[in-house]
Structure formats: C-alpha cells, structure tokens
Write a structure and sequence with these properties.
Helix content: under 10%
Largest sheet: 4 strands, antiparallel
Order of helices and strands: HHEEEEEEEEEEEEEEEEEEEHEEEEEEE
Structural class: mainly beta
Strand content: over 45%
Number of helices: 3
CATH superfamily: TolB, C-terminal domain
Distance between the termini: 41 Å
CATH topology: Neuraminidase
Radius of gyration: 18 Å
C-alpha cells in the first residue's frame, strides 16, 4: 500500500505551485464537451467545474492533500474536502472540512472538520454524501454518511483497516462500492486493493474483484475499476508494479468481468474511470506529466472499443454530469 499511495501523495505535493498559478474563471477549456459538466482539478488546492459556457472555480489555494471529489447525477451538487483556516496550525496539522458545493447557490457548506484523505462521494440525487474515516480509538475505517439537507451524520459499518479509499454510490442510493487494501505490504500476497460493495440497509460487505478506483455506472448495470496487467507473480506482489494500466467492468453481483481498455506497461491510469451520464462511455485519466500530475484525457466508447484523445496536459477528471 505504501508504494501505491506514495506515488499519488508525491504528485499532490509537487503540484501545488502549478495549481496556484492557474487560477481564475475562463470561458474556454480544452476539456469542454457538448452538454457536459466536468469536475476537474487537484482538490482541495484547486477544483473546477467545466461547462460548455464557462469554467467555474470551486476551490483555489489551500493545503495539498489526496482527495477524490464527486458530482451528483443532475450536476447540481459537488462533494469534496476543503482546507480550513479555523485556528493556529490547522492547515499544518492537515485539517480539512468535508463539504458540499451548491451550483445554484454558488457556495460551500462545511460539515465535519477532520484529518482526511480519500473519496467524498455524493449520492446520485445529491441528497447525501459518504466518506470513510479511520477511528481514533481503533485500527479500523468506518463509513460515514451526511444528510445534506439536515446536516445529520450517521455511521455505517467498518469497511476495513486502511483509509484513503475511493467510493461510489449505486444509482438507487442503496449500496456503495469502494476499494480497500487487504493487508500490509509486509504481509505478502494479499496486499492488493480489492473492490467491495456494502449494502447500506444490512451492512453486509461483498467482495467483487481485486482492483482499485471503482465507479458505478449511472445505469446501474456495471462497475468500472482499474487493475494491473502483468504476469501472475506481479499480480500476487502488486508492490512490484503498483500503477494500474487496465480498465475493467464487472456486474454488481461480481459476474461477467471483462477488460475494456489496456495501456502499455510503461503507462498508467490515475484517479477514477468516469462514466458518461448515459453509461455508454468512459473518460479515462492517463498519466501525462509526473512533475505536474497532469493527464491525457481519453474517451472510450464501450460499444465499439474506440478510444479518442480529447485533451492532454490537463488536471484529472473526477465527474461528468449533464449540463442544462
């Protein structure tokens, strides 16, 4: 886990100066797509919502961290973590606020202030957000859910032992898919990230596959995630080759697993596979510049397997919603 996460943390730290120098709202962007709202950036230091008409700056400046934001299916709510100033030493101590941004009101609402890294997943209807947090009194990571209307928080089941995970809601809001490492690197072959689903009503957790960065299709039919190619020994010892280079689809019940995109061994994918609102395409983040953390954005059409480059040397993409 240390090698896998270390690559991303080093990238986040190195990119801060680059991000702060690229602030402001612009009318044009290389990532604009017809009728699309795209969530891009390096939160909480920098986060933007790109639409066909404008680039809305949601975050600009702040401490570097490892945060994976999300956007609701209707494109009205963004969930992320934001830097907080609150008192002496808070930034240095790594405090952020779990927060939601209302597109219509153009403002953030802050909730828990915590030391955090990982995904902040907003439910498709924009009414709740979820994140996983290590409990201070135990070596365990528990699911937390916030009702955005009331601000009430509920705690869910323990998901595992390792924080910094990514999460994605099912379209009906009844389940959450997430990644979780299964052991420490020193403990051998099981040190691989796994894709699991938690049923929010029962708390039951089911493993679907080995892999990382899961993303549930808006249609509900598929879950996309990243994994490694390589030989059997590499897969049993993923710290030898920690960077994912394939996109895989699996049914929510764990069946019909299939690889839909592969990179050469020299390339790797980052962030998460991002579904189009109609579930027919995926936006993929292929690493472009390690020094800046930028990506080449590729659009995969699932019915044909066609892959089209839409931009290069751009921030990672985290969400895609329909623009009115």
């Amino acid at each position: 886990m240390e090698n896998y996460r270390g690559v991303l943390i080093v990238l986040a730290i190195c990119f801060l100066a680059f991000l702060q120098g690229d602030a402001g709202t612009r009318k044009k962007s290389a990532l604009q797509l017809p009728r699309a709202r795209l969530l891009v950036g390096f939160p909480p230091a920098n986060l933007r919502l790109i639409t066909p008409d404008e680039v809305l700056q949601l975050q600009d400046g702040g401490r570097e961290s490892l945060v994976f934001p999300s956007i609701s299916a209707n494109g009205q709510v963004v969930a992320s973590a934001i830097g907080v100033e609150g008192g002496e030493g808070t930034i240095a101590n790594g405090l952020v606020a779990i927060a939601a941004y209302s597109i219509s009101e153009r403002k953030w609402t802050q909730y828990s202030r915590i030391r955090f890294s990982g995904g902040v997943a907003v439910a498709p209807d924009g009414g709740r957000l979820a994140y996983a947090l290590r409990e201070e009194s135990a070596a365990s990571v528990r699911l937390h859910i916030i009702d955005l209307e009331t601000g009430a928080m509920t705690t869910g089941p323990i998901l595992g032992s390792y924080d910094g995970i990514k999460l994605s809601w099912s379209p009906d809001g009844h389940k959450i898919v997430f990644e979780m490492f299964q052991s420490l690197p020193s403990e051998g072959p099981q040190h691989a990230p796994a894709i699991l689903v938690v049923d929010l009503a029962t708390g039951k957790i089911t493993k679907l596959a080995d892999g990382s960065a899961p993303s549930w299709a808006p249609s509900g039919e598929w879950i996309a995630y990243l994994d490694h190619s390589g030989d059997t020994d590499d897969l049993r010892q993923p710290w030898k080759n920690p960077n994912p280079n394939r996109v895989v689809l699996v049914r929510p019940d764990g069946t019909r697993r299939k690889v839909v995109y592969s990179l050469p061994n020299s390339g790797f994918l980052q962030a998460v596979p991002v579904w189009s609102p109609d579930s027919r395409k995926l936006l993929l983040n292929e690493s472009f510049d390690m020094n800046k953390g930028t990506v080449t954005a590729r659009l995969l059409t699932l019915s044909t397997g066609r892959v089209m480059k839409i931009a290069h040397d751009v921030p990672p993409i985290y969400g895609w919603a329909v623009s009115p």
